[in-house]
């Protein structure tokens, strides 16, 4: 009996007790566990520790030799059996990104101990960490120091306390950096946890939960019952000692300037998502930098004091394009700017230590975004811990200039936001408020510590809560030598800026191509907003055929871009641009594309009229013969308009109204004629259909008779009409709004008329009251007659005698008479 033992095995589905003996081999024990949990021999792994270290392998050793005793807890993970000990050191794949340096130097003998500890603690093959995390996990991270000539008394090969390498989490070293570093990097924090004598045996980065644990059957559910097993622990807020991102860098000033242009032109605040990549930040040991390459501005309702996001139908397309370009969403940015002096361009300094750095509402929004972008981590039982998502605020600095400040919120704030336990205060933006428990939700107590006036640590209930306990500040920088993932000039309009008149359409694309001075096609299309327009436009979306171009932009391969340029999709885009904004030209003549009174770059292609959208044959351009003709015909006209123009006498050609009237009359006649022709054609087609209703239609024969050129022409005509209508409505609203909006000048006369009507109504009401009073006697007389009584009728006063003759006139009250003099 003394040799019989019971081993507890904890798995994601629950815990089970497995009977065994001390002399039982590990292979036999693993077979028992597999049968008990329903796994095959290779479908699970068992570890002595929760952090997946000291794996028990199928071997001939007994449980007593493995130091497994009665009542021990083992941990089962259904992730497959990992490789041998030498292969578990690195789960990460080799790095193909050029932003990460080589790791060949990290395999030295001095770093083998640290690397092996980190690798064993991170051995979770089913969790795919970010590439930068895999890279930093291989690094040694030690801070090497040179030999001190005054304090070191040893040879060149020796080390002492004055020159021995420091650990990456050394707080004294970080505090003496310039500027001082208040938060160590996340990977340095992991090295601190996995260091020491236990080598991280009891390390487990568990996410905070503010919800009641499910599955407790000993009592009714909340609010009828709760116990210590299912009740979440109280939270005491502490300033986080580490941060997941240590530096934020914009590739160039152009990215930030274009984002700020919206505020400069409208005075309203703006919000956008940052797209970039994560790289190593070498100024801090084992640190991570977020590099921003582009800003996407989603649909939003902006005002001078707030920004409200609306549903974005292009969100999935943006994520797909960014992934194919090697980018990802790394954060969000918003403005909080108030102009102080428009003459010198200064702004007010509002966010400081006397007010707040981030408001409670902004902290909640940042926590919401960070919960959406969790950081994969092999040390966490949940597979994720914290987030690399950053927050950037464009606000006024101490010098009254625009500054960019970077922040993150702590993991405690993320948990409070995720479980809906944190609320903002209406009157104090710098204060948050921890919710109280209700019948619908149990909220654990939240505390924070502060010092009183005597220097004593006092614990306060977080109602309200200073948000400084939830904020982690991050340095935001711009490089001395600008970097460009995308082309710097020219610039395609930014999405969702219709309020500024900056629209993304084919007219804007034609203008953009006309402004391109470079003859390199890759430089023309290397614009994040342009690529997004090509994928999401409604006329001709290229979502399924733009992959080759995105690869060319990602790898900066001009030959690959030229290959895509020869595709049918780009030819159609060029044709649409020529129809809307100008004449399509060869690769060396892009300067002529896009609108303007310039002569077409080439006369060897068909072109459309701007008035009637008629597609004209090459070589039929007409530009007018003199100054007046040029003013009347700012662009080449088609044969129809030219015929009308030549019918105008010379004396009338200088009158634009006469020319315009003849054109409009001609166009009306043409529309009538076209309508009649369509009606005749329809009748003829119907008659033919009646005669041939018994014949079977041969689609193979008829398909060859379709005039594809006419179909393409009709498509371009309809598209041109659409843009013409939209431009006309826009011009009416901007320049002649009185034709479409009501005449507000008529409101005062209408108000006066209503006032006079009200006065007449009151006078009529008074007159009706007088008549009612005078008819009361008549009503009494009628009642007496009906009752059988014979009352004497009221005597009317005799009319006064008219001594001067004339007919009497009835007075307005009906009872008196008067004479008309």
TrEMBL record:
Single GO molecular function: ubiquitin protein ligase binding
Name of this chain's protein: Nuclear protein localization protein 4 homolog
Glycoprotein recorded as keyword: no
Species assigned in the record: Coregonus suidteri
Keyword terms, alphabetized: Metal-binding, Zinc, Zinc-finger
Protein family according to the UniProt entry: Belongs to the NPL4 family.
Domain MPN: 248-385
Any one of the GO BP annotations: ubiquitin-dependent protein catabolic process
One GO cellular component, as annotated: nucleus
Keyword Chloroplast on entry: no
Residue ranges with Low complexity bias: 95-122
Compositionally biased residues, Basic and acidic residues: 804-821
PROSITE patterns assigned: MPN
Annotated Pro residues bias: 791-801
Superkingdom of the organism of origin: Eukaryota
Pfam families documented for this protein: NPL4, UN_NPL4, zf-NPL4
Region of interest: Disordered: 85-130, 785-821
Metabolic or biological pathway, per its Swiss-Prot or TrEMBL entry: Protein degradation; proteasomal ubiquitin-dependent pathway
């Amino acid at each position: 009996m003394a040799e019989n033992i019971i081993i507890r095995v904890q798995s994601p589905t629950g815990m089970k007790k497995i009977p065994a003996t001390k002399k039982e081999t590990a292979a036999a024990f693993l077979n028992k566990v597999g049968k008990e949990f329903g796994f095959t021999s290779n479908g699970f792994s068992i570890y002595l520790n929760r952090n997946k270290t000291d794996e028990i392998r199928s071997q001939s050793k007994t449980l007593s030799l493995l130091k497994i005793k009665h009542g021990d807890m083992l941990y089962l993970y259904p992730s497959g059996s990992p490789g041998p000990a030498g292969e578990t050191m690195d789960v990460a794949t080799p790095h193909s990104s050029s932003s990460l340096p080589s790791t060949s130097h990290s395999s030295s003998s001095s770093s083998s101990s640290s690397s092996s500890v980190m690798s064993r603690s991170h051995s979770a093959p089913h969790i795919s960490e970010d590439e930068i995390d895999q890279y930093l996990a291989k690094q040694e991270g030690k801070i090497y120091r040179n030999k001190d000539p005054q304090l070191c008394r040893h040879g060149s090969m020796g080390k002492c306390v004055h020159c021995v390498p420091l650990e990456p989490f050394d707080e004294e070293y970080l505090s003496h950096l310039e500027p001082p570093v208040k938060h160590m990097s996340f990977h340095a924090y992991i090295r601190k946890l996995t260091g020491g004598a236990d080598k991280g045996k009891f390390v487990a980065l568990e996410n905070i939960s503010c919800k009641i644990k499910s599955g407790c059957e000993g009592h009714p559910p909340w609010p009828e019952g709760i116990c210590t097993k299912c009740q979440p622990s109280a939270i005491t807020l502490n300033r986080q000692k580490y941060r997941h991102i240590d530096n934020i860098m914009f590739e160039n000033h152009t990215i930030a300037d274009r984002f700020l242009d919206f505020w400069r032109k409208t005075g309203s605040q703006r919000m956008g998502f940052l797209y970039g990549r994560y790289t190593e930040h070498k100024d801090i040991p084992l640190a991570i930098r977020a590099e921003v390459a582009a800003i996407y501005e989603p649909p939003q309702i902006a005002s001078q004091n707030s920004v409200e996001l609306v549903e974005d139908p292009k969100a999935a397309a943006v994520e797909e394009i960014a992934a194919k370009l090697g980018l990802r969403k790394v954060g969000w940015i918003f403005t909080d700017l108030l102009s102080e002096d428009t003459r010198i361009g200064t702004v007010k300094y509002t966010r400081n230590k006397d007010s707040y750095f981030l408001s409670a509402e902004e902290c909640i929004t940042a926590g919401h975004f960070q919960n959406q972008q969790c950081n994969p981590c092999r040390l966490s039982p949940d597979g994720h811990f914290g987030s690399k998502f950053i927050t950037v605020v464009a606000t006024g600095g101490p010098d009254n200039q625009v500054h960019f400040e970077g922040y993150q919120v702590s993991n405690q704030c993320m948990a409070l936001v995720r479980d809906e336990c944190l609320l903002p205060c209406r009157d104090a933006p710098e204060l948050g408020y921890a919710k109280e428990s209700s019948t619908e939700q149990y909220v654990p107590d939240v505390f924070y510590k502060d010092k009183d006036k005597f220097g004593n640590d006092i614990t306060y209930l977080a109602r309200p809560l200073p948000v400084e306990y939830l904020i982690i500040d991050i340095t935001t920088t711009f490089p001395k030598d600008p970097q460009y993932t995308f082309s710097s000039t020219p610039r395609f309009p930014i999405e969702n800026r219709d309020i500024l008149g900056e629209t993304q359409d084919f007219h804007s694309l034609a203008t953009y191509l006309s402004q391109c001075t470079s003859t390199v096609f890759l430089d023309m299309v290397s614009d994040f907003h342009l690529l997004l327009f090509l994928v999401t436009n409604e006329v001709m979306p290229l979502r399924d055929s733009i992959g080759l171009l995105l690869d060319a932009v990602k790898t900066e391969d001009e030959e690959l871009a030229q290959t895509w340029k020869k595709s049918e999709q780009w030819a159609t885009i060029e044709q649409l641009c020529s129809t809307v904004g100008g004449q399509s030209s060869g690769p060396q003549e892009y300067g002529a594309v896009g609108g303007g009174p310039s002569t077409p770059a080439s006369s060897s292609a068909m072109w459309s009229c701007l008035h009637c959208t008629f597609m004209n044959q090459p070589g039929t351009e007409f530009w007018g013969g003199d100054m007046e003709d040029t003013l009347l015909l700012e662009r080449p006209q088609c044969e129809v308009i030219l015929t009308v123009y030549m019918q105008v006498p010379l004396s009338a050609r200088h009158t634009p109204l006469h020319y315009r009237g003849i054109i409009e009359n001609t166009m009306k006649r043409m529309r009538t004629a076209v309508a009649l022709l369509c009606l005749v054609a329809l009748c003829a087609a119907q008659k033919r259909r009646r005669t041939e209703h018994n014949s079977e239609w041969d689609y193979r024969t008829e398909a060859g008779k379709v005039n594809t050129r006419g179909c393409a022409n009709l498509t371009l005509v309809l598209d041109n009409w659409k843009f013409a209508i939209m431009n006309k409505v826009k011009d009416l609203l901007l320049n002649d709004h009185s034709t479409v909006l009501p005449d507000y000048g008529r409101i005062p006369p209408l108000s006066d008329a209503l006032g006079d009507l009200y006065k007449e109504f009151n006078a009529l009401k008074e007159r009706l009251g007088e008549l009612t009073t005078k008819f009361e006697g008549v009503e009494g007389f009628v009642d007496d007659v009906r009752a059988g009584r014979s009352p004497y009728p009221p005597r009317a006063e005799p009319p006064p005698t008219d001594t001067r003759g004339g007919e009497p006139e009835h007075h307005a009250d009906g009872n008196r008479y008067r004479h008309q003099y």
